[in-house]
Design a protein that fits this description.
The chain is α/β, with parallel strands linked by helices. The chain is built from twelve helices and 21 strands. Helix 8 packs across helix 9.
Length: 439
């Protein structure tokens, strides 16, 4: 029998003061949205203008009458979103804007905003973390208020023993830290943890963990399977982005979608073309509204993430809203003839190859004739893939195969054998479009 996610009772306690009820929770969320809209119209110069003339939503369907907030709005007018005196802002996060021009995107948090994140991390981690367990944090954690630091605080409240390590810079050093620290579980970036698992096998190091949480980027089935097999552990996925305060949702032991942080985030899924809400079960763009954020509330913020709301109760027994595991983002695919190629397509295929640690991918040349270049780092081992193996794997991706068959795509692969190092991605992975290439 699968234990019900502890998030449900925690959220019910915050919102309802008692037993969970989906209808009452929805009413509570709508009340918080009205408060957020009221606060933003009064305190935020941006929303005072954007929301002028709008009515407070009474029902979920009324949200469609409110305008969206877009990433470019935040990029261009970030300070105008703030609803508190600037002296109350405790942390500013500047986001990578690779592939865009103009000013960077900055997100502002008060101490109380960050406290919401800590509490979500605390209860989210309690899904699979027990008091006394030693948890290695493979995320940025050496600045006060950064994601790893907040997670460290949350784990201490849970009674666990968190160990700050930071993003992986050296596979041997991180592997040594796991052994020396008698680590029970870890939290890290999917591609990095996958490389660590592969490296541990190559080095002949037996590592047994209870659990691993993968976060900051999409989690491919291939990576989850690799990590589970090598470390003998259960692998969980987490969905979050800086704009939503890092805490969006986390898997339970049923692994049937992300249970939403419904006490602080209201989720919608909309058709990215018509921008109208879609029924549960249909794919679209994830849109969020913060419910209790005071420093920089966001109203109907378009995340660019593609997912769907899963209907019905989770196999764990919870009726909390669930989002399906995310795989792609709008605007990040590269057009190959009649199809789009996404980094998730490459991840599922290439990370299934034995011995492959990491890779980069770039597309160059104007449509319709393009070149896909993939550079893979592999272990210096007999069974590691060569350039032909990588090319063969790529040919099994539908978009690549169809474009190549039409004579619209040339594929070039390169492989570097490594023994004690590899470039390691700490941000969201993407296919690089070289100069002159449109998506």
């Amino acid at each position: 029998m699968i234990d019900k996610t502890p998030l449900e009772d925690w959220i019910a306690g915050i919102a309802l003061g008692g037993a969970f009820d989906a209808g009452r929770l929805r009413d509570w969320q709508m009340a918080r949205i009205r408060e957020t809209v009221g606060l933003a119209r009064k305190k935020s110069p941006f929303y005072r203008r954007r929301l002028a003339g709008t009515r407070l939503p009474q029902r979920p369907e009324d949200l469609a009458d409110l305008p969206f907030t877009c990433p470019d709005d935040v990029r261009k007018e970030g300070l105008r979103f703030i609803c508190v005196p600037q002296g109350e802002i405790a942390r500013v996060v500047t986001l990578d804007t690779s592939g865009t021009s103009g000013p960077p995107k900055r997100i502002y948090f008060t101490n109380s905003d960050q406290e919401l994140t800590v509490e979500f991390f605390r209860y989210g981690m309690s899904v699979f973390t027990r008091p006394g367990q030693r948890v290695l944090i493979l995320l940025p954690c050496h600045r006060e208020g950064c994601v790893g630091d907040l997670l460290h605080t949350a784990l201490l409240r849970l009674g666990a023993n968190p160990v700050k390590h930071g993003v992986i810079q050296s596979l041997p050093e991180t592997l040594e830290a796991i052994g020396a620290g008698r680590i029970d579980a870890l939290v890290g970036i999917p591609a990095q943890v996958n490389a660590l698992a592969r490296y541990a096998a190559w080095a002949g190091r037996e590592v047994k963990l209870a659990n691993a949480l993968l976060t900051t980027d999409h989690v491919s089935e291939a990576v989850a399977a690799n990590v589970a097999a090598r470390f003998g552990c259960e692998v969980f996925g987490h969905y979050g982005m800086t704009e939503m305060g890092l805490g969006g949702g986390v898997e339970c032991r049923a692994h049937a979608g992300y249970h939403a942080f419904a006490a602080d985030i209201y989720f919608e899924v909309v058709d990215p073309v018509s921008l109208r809400p879609v029924p549960d079960g249909e794919y679209g763009e994830v849109v969020i509204t913060t419910l209790r954020r005071r420093g920089m509330p966001l109203i109907r913020y378009r995340t660019g993430d593609v997912s769907r709301i899963l209907s019905g109760a989770c196999p764990c027994g919870s009726s909390l809203l669930r989002l399906e595991r995310l795989t792609r983002r709008l605007g990040t695919g590269v057009r190959l003839h009649a199809d789009e190629l996404h980094i998730c397509d490459l991840d599922e295929t290439l990370f299934s190859l034995p011995g492959l640690l990491d890779f980069t991918a770039a597309v160059s040349g104007p449509a319709p004739c393009r070149r896909l270049y993939v550079h893979a780092a592999v272990l210096d081992a007999p069974n590691s893939p060569g350039p032909g193996d990588v090319a063969g794997a790529l040919s099994r991706i539908g978009a690549v195969a169809r474009a190549a068959k039409q004579g619209c795509l040339a594929v070039e692969t390169e492989v570097s054998k490594v023994s004690d190092w590899v470039w390691l991605h700490a941000g969201k992975r993407r296919i690089v479009c070289e100069e002159g290439v449109g998506r």
